[in-house]
Amino acid sequence: MKILQLNKPLAPISFDALRLQADRIRHASVGDAVYLRGVIEFSNFCRCNCLYCGLRKDNALLQRYRLNEQGVMAAAKEAARAGVDTIVLQSGEDPAYRKRLVARIVSRIKDETGLAVTLSLGVRSTATYQLWRRAGADRYLLKHESADAGLYAALHPGGGLDDRIDAIKRLQDAGFAVGTGFIVGLPGQNDAVLMQDIMLTQALQVEMCGVGPFIPQHNTPLAGEQAGSVGKTLKIIAYLRSHIPRLNIPATTALASLSPEYGQEMALKAGANVIMPNFTPEKHRAKYRIYDGKVRVSMADAYAAIDKTRPLRKSAEERPACNSALHIFPNAPAAYWADVAKGGAQ
Ligand code: SF4
Asked: Is 103 close to ligand 1, i.e. is its CB under 6 Å away?
């Protein structure tokens, strides 16, 4: 199969051609399953100050919370009953949530649900990563956020891209299957940086990569910036699938937040194969406000998006011919097509 090249990345290839290629590659390389990974956001405390994130420590207006062990276990069991295949424990970088407590919760989830466990708890010491791996955690999500070292430094006070990449490698050395990710539409980003993001993802040899549009949060230094584009994010997902065929790629909650009706459906049709429904207890859900307008993706939402893609989740021979974007997403309003046709121009 001829893979569309990355050297002319975002302009000359129609989204339709790119999406169809990505969908075929997705079918041939990782199959038609959509993995459901249930997220529990158990603490919104964070010691970091990332400019784009509402959980940043300088956001004094955010009401903070931490679930106790009992609360995390209750949410994990609810997710297991609902039918997810993985429990994802996510938090800000919260040192008050002790590493041995995390290890005990990981062990309990493995023992009491039998499900895979993914952690997304930020940068920690090698010893901590090894402890959590020994406790049974299977995967770890640590986004590289931006492959441009200057942009990374500007957005992460006190942090550097090299340290982030080092942490990803330490996780792999500890035996984790690692997922990375990056943001589309960051202020100061251009298409060349996005191509660097794809190339870095490939070089890191990770198992998963999440791509979401930048969405400003009103209590952060980037409050007044323009949100990233759904169309461009979909294009990047399709490029990722085309360039790294076996990658697991989520249809992100950020896409669902900018496009509640179509975002995840369109991502699944552009090469994505994972959805991450949210099981954070309702009374805390709105406080995990990384960006404004963050929606909750429920199991029903996930199934609805999957159902809409069923005609494409057949063998290539069985699929209906798709010659235009309008055939692929027949119900999408014109505004989405205008955005996609522009290549997601912001
Ligand atoms: S992006 Fe992550 S590390 Fe940065 S402030 Fe938000 S929760 Fe903390």
From this structure: no
Local structure of residue 130 (DSSP, 8 states)? H
User: Does the beta carbon of 123 sit less than 6 angstroms from any atom of ligand 1?
Assistant: no
CATH number of residue 125's parent domain: 3.20.20.70
Is the C-beta atom of 221 inside 6 A of ligand 1? no
Work out how many domains the chain is built from and give that number. 1
> Is any ligand 1 atom within 6 A of the Cβ of residue 121?
no
Distance CA 277, CA 298 (A): 5
10 part of a folded domain: no
- DSSP H helices, the chain, are 15-30, 69-82, 99-113, 126-134, 149-155, 161-173, 191-204, 230-243, 253-258, 263-269, 282-285, 299-308, 325-328, 334-341
Residue 5 lies in a domain: no
Distance between terminal CA atoms of the chain? 32
Q: Decide: 46 in ligand 1 pocket, CB within 6 A.
A: yes
The string of pLDDT tens digits covering residues 17-75 is 889 899 999 999 999 899 999 999 999 999 999 999 999 999 999 999 999 999 999 99
Determine which residue's CA is closest to atom 3 belonging to ligand 1.
Answer: 48
Q: Does the residue 150 lie in any domain? A: yes
Determine, yes or no, domain membership for 8: no
The answer to whether residue 343 scores a pLDDT higher than 60 is: no
Q: Which atom of ligand 1 is nearest to the CA of 57?
A: 5
Q: Would you tell me how many other CB atoms lie within 10 Å of the CB of residue 342?
A: 13
Instruction: From the CA of 290, give the closest atom in ligand 1.
Output: 6
**Ligand 1: which residue has its CA nearest to atom 4?**
50
Residues 329, 239: Cα–Cα separation, whole Å: 19
User: Residue 173 belongs to what domain range?
Assistant: 15-341
Percentage of the chain modeled with pLDDT above 70: 86
Tell me: the pLDDT tens digits for 301-334?
999 998 888 766 554 444 433 333 323 333 333 4
51 lines ligand 1 (CB under 6 A): no
Q: Is the CB of 181 under 6 A from ligand 1?
A: no
CA of 137 from ligand 1 middle (Å) equals 21
Q: Is the shortest distance between the CB of 207 and ligand 1 below 6 Å? A: no
Nearest alpha carbon to residue 50 among 41, 59, 40, 38: 59
